[in-house]
Amino acid sequence: MIWPEAVTTRVKVGSDRELVHAYPYRSACPSTVWAALAHDATADVFLAGYTNYFLWTQVPDFAGIVRRKAESGCRVRFLLGDPAGETTRQREEVEAAALTVSTRIRITLEHLARLGPLDGLEARFSAAPDAVNHVGLSVFRFDRDVLVTPHLARVIGHDSPMFHLRRQGAGGMADRFAEHAEGLWGRATPVPDAMA
C-alpha cells in the first residue's frame, strides 16, 4: 500500500471505526441528530438516561415520534432513575440545581402518562443497587446507533461529553454500552401504572 501512514491517520480502521462523532457537551449535539435517529429507528429505541427529560424539550414533536414508533411496531423503552430513590436524592445534593433530578424524572413520567398505554412502549426504574451505575452513564440506542454520555462528577448531564457510535460488528464499543444498558433494564422494575 502506498503511503500507509497517511491513510491510517485519515481512515478509521481499528476499534475507533464505530465512533461517528464526539461532542464535548451533550448539549452540543444538534437536536436534528436526535430527531433523525429517533425517526429512522425501526426496531428498537432504548432511552436509558437517568431522567430523559431533555428529549421532550430538545427534540421537536418527541411525543409524536414516540407514539408513531410504538404504533409502527418499534419497541420503545425508557429506563429512568427512581424519583424517590436514595441515589436520586444524593445526586440532587451534588448538582444543587433548581431543576432537581427527581423533577426531571417526573417530567418524563408526565409525558409518558400523557401518551397513555401503548403496545411497544415500556418504562422501568433502575433497581436500587444499579442506580449508582445508571446515574453515571446514559445510553441512548436507536437500532444500531448509540449515543453515550459518561457523566462528569459534579455537572448536569447536558454539560457532560457525549459520543455517537454506530455498531459495526459484534463486541465493539456500541455493543458494550448497549449490553451495559440491557443489564440495567433486566434488573429494573416496571414504573407503576399510576406514574406513567
Helices and strands, with pairings:
Layout (H helix, E strand, L loop, with lengths): L3 H7 L8 E5 L7 H10 L3 E5 L5 H5 L3 H10 L3 E6 L5 H10 L5 H15 L5 E5 L5 H5 L1 E6 L2 E6 L11 E5 L6 H15 L1 E2 L6
Parallel strand pairs: 2-3, 3-4
Antiparallel strand pairs: 1-7, 2-5, 4-8, 5-6, 6-7
Distance between the termini: 58 Å
Instruction: Write the element-wise H/E pattern from the N-terminal end onward.
Output: HEHEHHEHHEHEEEHE
> How would a textbook summarize the main sheet?
8 strands, mixed
What is Rg?
Answer: 17 Å
Q: Find the structural class using helix and strand composition.
A: alpha+beta
Strand order in the largest sheet: 1-7-6-5-2-3-4-8
- 3D shape: globular
Number of strands: 8
Strand content: 15-25%
Helix share, percent: 25-40%
Question: Uncertain segments of ≥5 residues (pLDDT<50)?
Answer: none
Q: Mean pLDDT, rounded to whole units?
A: 90
Note the total helix count: 8
